[in-house]
């Protein structure tokens, strides 16, 4: 009980972002101030909170240090891998888990028999518009982000069946969103087929996707496994808890922003160098 109460107090302090006094939080929790002072003293001793004056507390530096060692995608992979292994074994296909990063799919997990020789590998990135995992993730983007992706163009046909027209892709993604799954039938590689479903939570919507892939299957053969994929997705959602999606999505957005900032910095530096060079040595 004491530990639960201390953790509840810590959560309220951190999430309040120092807007409320300790007395306000104690009142919310319906605990005496003497108890609140005792608990906050223990938390402050460990560096988990820090007093900032006027009866207010904020998250401490030790808490921030601990958070640096939590890598949401690593935790996601560790928890999801046994589920993906069972999925691959049951379906006799290759199972993947992927997230959306920098307009690409990053594969975090690949499980299945090496005999299928599917070209994917863990940590590999693949174009999102032509894969089952990617189409699920693009379809789940906020409308403005999805339109920005579609308007970026440059959809290269990897096979004769790859959807490269933005209008057709937009309609296809609307169907994916409505039905809750995506099929990739020979779009990323010849004869390669894939069925993907989203991983969702209550706070971030879709934050990842899982899939099965094999060569030469018909759509109806893949769809026979749809209930199992959804069952696996639901089991993972329950196991990961309510905050997993938020943290994974936040990490993804931070990574994307760092990439964009690096691109802007490189472009600005190139412009500066061009300006600094004597005219006679500038590249025409």
Detail the topology: elements first, then pairings:
Elements: H1 2-16, H2 22-29, H3 33-45, E1 49-53, E2 56-59, H4 61-68, H5 72-91, E3 94-101, E4 104-111, E5 125-127, H6 132-139, H7 143-151, H8 166-179, E6 182-185, E7 192-201, E8 205-215, H9 219-223, H10 226-240, H11 244-276
Antiparallel strand pairs: 1-2, 3-4, 3-8, 4-5, 6-7, 7-8
Helix pairs in contact: 1-2, 1-3, 5-10, 6-8
Walkthrough of the structure:
The chain has a 6-stranded antiparallel β-sheet with strand order 5-4-3-8-7-6, with helices on both faces. The termini are far apart. It is α+β, with helices and mostly antiparallel strands and 284 residues long. It has 2 domains: 64 residues, Winged helix-like DNA-binding domain superfamily/Winged helix DNA-binding domain (Arc Repressor Mutant, subunit A, Orthogonal Bundle), CATH 1.10.10; 176 residues, GAF domain (Beta-Lactamase), CATH 3.30.450.40. Helix 1 packs across helix 2, helix 1 crosses helix 3 and helix 6 packs across helix 8. It has 11 helices and 8 strands. Helix content is 52%, strand content 19%.
């Amino acid at each position: 009980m004491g530990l639960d109460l201390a953790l509840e107090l810590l959560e309220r302090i951190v999430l309040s972002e120092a807007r409320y006094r300790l007395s306000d939080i104690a009142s919310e929790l319906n605990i005496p101030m003497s108890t609140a002072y005792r608990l906050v003293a223990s938390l402050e001793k460990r560096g988990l909170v820090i007093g900032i004056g006027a009866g207010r507390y904020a998250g401490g530096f030790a808490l921030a240090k601990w958070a640096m060692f939590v890598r949401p995608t690593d935790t996601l992979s560790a928890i999801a891998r046994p589920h993906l292994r069972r999925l691959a074994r049951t379906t006799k296909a290759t199972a993947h888990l992927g997230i959306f990063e920098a307009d690409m799919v990053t594969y975090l997990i690949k499980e299945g028999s090496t005999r299928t020789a599917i070209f994917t590998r863990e940590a590999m990135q693949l174009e999102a518009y032509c894969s089952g995992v990617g189409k699920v993730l693009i379809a789940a983007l906020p409308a403005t982000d999805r339109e920005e992706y579609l308007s970026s163009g440059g959809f290269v046909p990897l096979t004769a069946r790859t959807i490269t027209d933005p209008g057709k892709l937009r309609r296809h993604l609307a169907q994916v969103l409505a039905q809750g799954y995506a099929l990739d039938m020979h779009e990323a590689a010849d004869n390669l087929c894939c069925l993907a479903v989203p991983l969702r939570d209550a706070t971030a919507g879709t934050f990842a996707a899982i899939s099965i892939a094999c060569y030469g299957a018909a759509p109806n053969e893949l769809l026979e496994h749809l209930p199992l994929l959804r069952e696996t997705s639901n089991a993972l959602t329950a196991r990961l808890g309510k905050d997993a999606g938020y943290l994974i999505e936040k990490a993804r957005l931070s990574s994307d922003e760092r990439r964009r900032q690096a691109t802007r910095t490189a472009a600005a530096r190139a412009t500066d160098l061009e300006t600094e060079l004597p005219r006679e040595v500038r590249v025409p």
